Predict the structure.
Amino acid sequence: MISSLGASRPFLASILASVCLAGGGAAHAQAATLILFDGKIWTENPAQPEAAAIAIDGTRIVALGSSAAMRRLAAPGCQLIDLHGRRVLPGFNDSHVHFLDGGASLASVQLGDANSAGELRARVKAYAVPLAKGAWIRNGNWDHQRWSPPVLPTHQLIDDVTPSNPVMVWRIDGHMALVNASAMKLAGLDRNTKDVPGGEIVRDADGNPTGILKDAATALVERIMPPLSESERDAAMTAAMHEAARYGVTSVQNMADSSADTQGAQKLRQFQKFARTGSLTVRIYDAIRLQDWKDLAGAGVQAAFGSPSLRIGNLKSFADGALGSETAWMDAPFSDHSGKSGLASSELLDAAAMYANIQGADRAGLQVTVHAIGDRAIHTVLDLLERAEREDGAADRRFRIEHVQHLRPADAARFAPLGVIASMQPYHAIDDGRWAEKLLGPERIKSSYAWRLLLDHGAVLAFGSDWPVAPLDPLTGIYAAVTRRTLDGKNPQGWIPQQRITVAEAVHAYTVGSAFAEYQESVKGSLMPGKLADLVVLSKDVLHIAPEEILKAHVDMTIFAGAVIYDAEQVP
């Protein structure tokens, strides 16, 4: 229930130092413009782990405590929200997204749940019918591991249903794409095209491209694909913000898509456009490519520079590909392909140049983030980061490795001493767990998505989704981290159950851990006086229901900067 006591009042500039944290009191605290009461508020503040009510003035939290104490802080015009016992958490912070791509994917052809090559073809055909001649078909997120047998598609599958439209649709992991004959013709891609370092042009028995491009090879077509128009970018941004609000995501950490992603400046301008007009309803920490670090350093930018709404200073590099595309760089060959053990990225193939970029960015005070999925890639990246720390000396650098999916067990102990954050996406485990053992065998999977092992060694976990590679929904991610039940229902006790973590640990990784990963733990991630008023109201108490019931929970309300931006009761 929401009620009002009259006209609203503006946010007061500072939080009084005398706000009382003990005993649920709020003596001498300033007045509030929004109060949520009669709930179960999980604060992530060890000094006050739970409260019944929270008082907010403008964009900041004033106090937490008993419902009676908080209601006494109501200013004229204060909005009152009766939680009716519902659970409140800090707003979710997704540590790894591709935000504009996610928004654009909502309006693109939907291939993620296509259960056969025939179904993929039918959906592409239906999507192409109303398109103008020459318009590109992109995104898609198909997954051949859903098919029986799981055989890669070819351009012949879709050529005759897309005669007037070039196609580049991605596998769900973002490391492999299917292109049609029209796209290959525009790109000048044929049997004479040379293979690409750090990538693979999949060919048939006669040496002709099949239409499947892996990792660095995707740039052959990406470079001639037109960017989204301004109106398309605006629509993508609006759709992405709505999706975030629906799932209680109040902060995201946007990542460069690949080593060949040249759209970083354009994406940042898009984020600035919405921030400048005050229409941004999610906080963004933006990461561009590592090789572009001099652009930021030359302007004097250091890590986490900007406003509460939009910040920069993170740089993303790539060490390998993905398991589903068989481009994750592994110590040993894949179990079903004795001659293949994945691919080092085009960046890591020149390890000296990659290290020079890491060290240069680090010395400039910028944050370095590296994608690494395979055990050999993770180990190699840890070696590079350890060398930088040794040569550059102590600093609050917060190196990050993204994904950390398939780990040498001994490497788990290296993260905490080096201060390397493990930025991971729990959903991938319950998705990949359907088929990963076929590629890795029974021993290597024991340290796959090893959240428990990393936590037990003191590593900081920051959780995210990799949206649109996976759903943006953090509750699904929490369910995955806690149950490890694969999507096919074949692991009811959990896939590699010894790597499960608790709900509280998963929530911490989605809030405090992610805030730490972007240097923002002092202003968000937990609910404390003076911090940003970003929080989420849930339909169920995920901290106390059976873990398998978490999938039945949803977001009832999302509050961003002290304003309700999503209310499930108001959705048609």
Residues 2-91+530-570 form a domain with the Urease, subunit C; domain 1 fold (CATH 2.30.40.10). The chain has three domains: 2-91+530-570, 113-171+175-222, 230-517. The first strand starts at residue 2 and ends at 4.
